[in-house]
Amino acid sequence: MAFLIPVFAMTETPLEIESEVSTVEAEPDKPPRSQWVDIWQQLKAHKGAMVGTYLFAFITIGVFVGPFIWHIDPTYLPQGRDFIDLRDTRPIYTLIWDSQAKVSWAHPLGTDNLGRDALARLMSGGRVSIAVGLTAMVLSILLGTIIGVVAGFFRRMDGSLMRLTDLFLALPLLPLILVASLLFRDPLSNSFGTEGGIFILIVVLIGLTSWMQTARIVRGDVLALKEREFVLAARSVGTTPVQLIIRHLLPNTLSPIMVSATLGIATAIITESALSFLGFGFPPDFPTWGRLLNDSVDRMVLYPERVLWPGLMISLTVLSVNYLGDGLRDALDPRIRGR
């Protein structure tokens, strides 16, 4: 019976094996799917991130493209009889519960106590607030990334840079920003104009006081990455530190940097709104969402919609950016991607 074992073990004939080999060889090799495709698929599966993305895109497009459709000047002050007719008008939807409300169909969201259109001021304020948020975010991300990479890669710089980071984290940032805005407001306004000088001042102040979290995150990733095999291999072939940082370390720290960037937009918008609400931001004739809140708080009992709309826009913008950052964190992290 021993000689029968090989016979029964043969489950396939040589012809069948040859046909299977030829079939495998005939199949073309499929190109590997891009990593960015996997990231996009993961991001699409995150419902909160997609809602945040669409909402933030809708708000951004609305405040930047809306003025080309709604041609009313946000700083226009009516004169004479028009001033009496247009000041303190209510939104047209107030007619639902108050048929005697003073409304103007030419101003669907109403006007303020000076007769300025609320919708035009809301879009103009959104442009300024989002522009401040994006610009301050870029500055803070650049500072945080540079300091984090240098501290993580060069051991001699680690102690001093991290102590500097701890110092900034220990400072009371909002009072510091208020004092700095008082000191540098007039010199910058004289050099770059009122609006330009205050824009530069607020962006620089927010950027200089919001880079610490990014620096810590990037430093931790660089400390882990520089001991990996591909970094040691790059060092062994004579790669310079600058090339090593640009080619190998920075691309692998892109995930936390992008997440910090999205969250930095929200932080910058809230900080600018707080400064404008406290009266340390842009001048009254240069609207931002925070400035609109500041101008409306005195009469919020009589006209609650003047506080509602800018507050709602700030909340929706910050909420959408936070959801987008949450989705990017899950999509860019390969350890949890696909869960």
How does this model look, in words?
With 339 residues, the protein is an all-alpha fold. Helix content is 71%, strand content 0%. The chain is built from 15 helices and no strands. The protein has helices at 5-9, 14-26, 35-45, 47-69, 81-86, 118-153, 155-170, 173-192, 194-208, 212-225, 229-236, 241-252, 254-277, 289-296, 305-332. α4 crosses α15 (305-332), α8 (173-192) runs antiparallel to α9 and α11 packs antiparallel against α12.
List keywords for this structure.
elongated, mainly alpha, 339 residues, 15 helices
**Uncertain spans:** 1-27
Distance between the termini: 53 Å
Number of strands: 0
- Annotation field: number of helices: 15
Helix content estimate: over 70%
Rg, Cα atoms, Å? 29 Å
Q: What is the multimeric organization of the chains shown?
A: single chain
Coarse shape:
elongated
SSE order, as H and E?
Answer: HHHHHHHHHHHHHHH
| Major β-sheet profile | none
- If you average the pLDDT, what whole number results? 82
Structural class: mainly alpha
Beta content comes to: under 5%
